[in-house]
Amino acid sequence: MSTPRIEVIEQYCKGCSICVEFCPTNVLEMDGFLVKVVRPEACISCMQCELRCPDFAIKVHKD
Amino acid sequence: MAFDYDKYLRPGKLPHIWCPGCGHGIVLKGLLRAIDACQLEKNRTAIVSGIGCASRLPGYVDFNTLHTAHGRAAAFATGIKMAQPHMNVLVVGGDGDGVAIGGNHFIHACRRNIDMTYVICNNFIYGMTGGQFSPCTPTGDKASTTPYGNPDPTFDIGKLAIGAGATFVARTTAFHATQIDKLIAEGIRHKGMAVIEVLDDCPTTYGRRNKFRSVVDMMKRFKELAVPVAKAATMSKEELDGKFVTGILHREERPEYCEQYAQLVKRAQNL
Amino acid sequence: MAKKVALLQGNEACAYGALYAGCSFFGGYPITPSTEVAEVLARELPKTGGKFIQMEDEIGAMASVLGAALTGVKALTASSGPGISLKQELIGYACIAEIPCVIVNVMRGGPSTGMPTGPSQSDIMQARWGTHGDHAAIAVAPASCQEIFSETVRAFNLAETYRMPVQILLDEINGHMRERIELPEPGDLEVVDRQAPPVSPDQYLPYDPSFGDVPPLAAFGSEYRFHVTGLNKAADGFPTTKAKLVDAEERRQIRKVEANRDQIEKNEEYMVDDAEILIVAIGTISRSARHAVNELRKQGQKVGLFRPITLWPFPERRIAELAGQVKVIIVPEMNLGQMILEVERVIKGACALHGIGRVDGEPISPSQIMDKVKEVY
């Protein structure tokens, strides 16, 4: 299985950190008021970040 | 595969106006997944709202959208549905909009059992105006107009809707993201008045005043306090105290208003 | 061929006029003395496939009318004093969102619950300024049952032409009075229907000023999808706080009435050519005034009647002209001085001005008007 690509749409992200908190494999971290993908290789495509982001700011592309 | 929200979003309208961590965006996404699951045709779908933070939702989505006056959404929606029964009519709004200033329209839409889906984002507060208590603010909680704690008892929106006659009533929370779209989709498929209450977080005006350290704390509380309907049935009243029962709270079949009216038209024309 | 005739109450004539105009939706709430409008339409609308709904309250009734109107149908509501006060919120919504609809106000005494079974003309200023914020207003004030029918048709035409709410002001007397009326055949009266926008859906903006001051309104449920809000908005219908856009939209909405006064205004002038005394009256009281004019003419007094049928926009140009001709204007009205304020504003002191006000639940009689004429001239 290839590593999914995580896309952050920076101009939509408001820095609420919901995605960071609910990621089970610590792929994401806050960088000030912006989310950053720091460990993409750990992503298990659970989609929690995309599902819970209130701001349409994060997408997980599996293909 | 990532869900393609873009096909339902109006181009150029994001970022939305909601605060960081506000659950309304989560509800919006759930609503779009539900609409997609039900394959609603854009031209035949109207989304109506009142006034308040949640009521800004229709502006972002590519349907026939109507941002009305405070509390009046259900009544505008009733006019649309009566005039065009073939249209899918959805209403979105907050707790103050829906059951305070709009309470009369809300209960009578339930009573008529008119075929619409009312998604009510209950974040326990008037957010747009800066955090005044609503009929859904828990007793004792702080709001800008209850600096000594809220003296008012609280509305149970689910019970209110059931009592008024809604034939599909469900509850979930902003934490239970996948349940949001499943319940809204069930509500859309249901023939009659469907009310889906989503317990929502307002970190800015409610959370801050009520000792939630973060939006994540608010989400976790929803997770902890939610009790699925089946489990709730096995619990005592005392055990359920302070908890939220989630899932489909009520479902019944009862004649739908526009269908009843169509029968009336037939009677009138056979005079 | 002889016309079909009927003995109709004013409120009934209003309901039949609405049907003639193609009204297919009524949302209402029971209130004296307007209820017969609802009762007739509850019976007649289903026969034509139309919809009647009695809502939970007056605001809900107005909301249902606006929701229905946005789907392309002609929609009506009818009420009186307290109900019209409640509807003001959404009359303003209809103004800013530019939703055609017709509101009947069968005026009764007030303020508040007032005198539900007594006539009044005390909502004249409410019809102009009842809802908050700057806005244009169109209101018609028919006098006879025949005219209530035809003015109801015209009210729908004005609503569609100018894409805005139009009010019909009746009162407890002409709303409940029965008269013989000739029922117009289809085609006798002009009926204006809403047209689909002359552009494709992808080019449609609901408030596009390139169409002129009255942009076409598409229907919800058609292939035109658009956004409607009560916030100040730009041409695309979405909220804006940009000063220039807000200003342009507000001014356009006022201008669409102001620039079309000639098409909207409708007056009746009776024996004004040589008049030295002019009576300005509307609705029921214009009937007393006409009687007074006839009697005074018999006595050799040069009296005339000017009757605004379109009350708003107020016929200020013509009244100003007449003020230059006559010596005295008398304004009898069933309130304590509302329309007289408009007359005073437009005549700018060009002639003497006197009012007759009455709020005791009785109409102003011809002899009351005659006495006033004799008193002041």
Could you give a short description of this structure?
Chain B has 271 residues and is an alpha/beta fold. Chain B has a single domain, classed as Thiamin diphosphate (ThDP)-binding fold, Pyr/PP domains (Rossmann fold, 3-Layer(aba) Sandwich), CATH 3.40.50.
Write structural notes for this entry.
The complex is a heterotrimer of chains A (63), B (271) and C (377). Chain A is of the alpha+beta class and 63 residues long. Chain A has helices at 18-22, 48-52; strands spanning 5-8, 28-31, 34-37, 58-61. In chain A, β2 and β3 (34-37) form a beta hairpin. The longest helix of chain A is centred in the N-terminal third of the chain and has 5 residues, at 18-22. The model of chain A has no long low-confidence stretch (mean pLDDT 94). The model of chain B has no long low-confidence stretch (mean pLDDT 97). Chain B has an 8-stranded mixed beta sheet, with helices on both faces. Chain B has a two-stranded antiparallel ribbon with strand order 5-6. Chain B has helices at residues 24-37, 73-83, 95-101, 103-112, 157-164, 177-189, 203-207, 215-225, 229-232, 237-240, 257-269; strands spanning 45-49, 64-67, 88-94, 116-122, 125-126, 132-133, 168-173, 193-199, 226-228, 244-251. In chain B, β5 (125-126) and β6 (132-133) form a beta hairpin. Chain B has 271 residues and is α/β, with parallel strands linked by helices. Chain C is 39% helix and 22% strand. Chain C has 377 residues and is α/β, with parallel strands linked by helices. Chain C has 3 domains: 4-183, Thiamin diphosphate (ThDP)-binding fold, Pyr/PP domains (Rossmann fold), CATH 3.40.50.970; 201-261, no CATH class; 268-376, Rossmann fold. At the B-C interface, β2, α2, α4 and α11 of B face β2, α3, α4 and β10 of C.
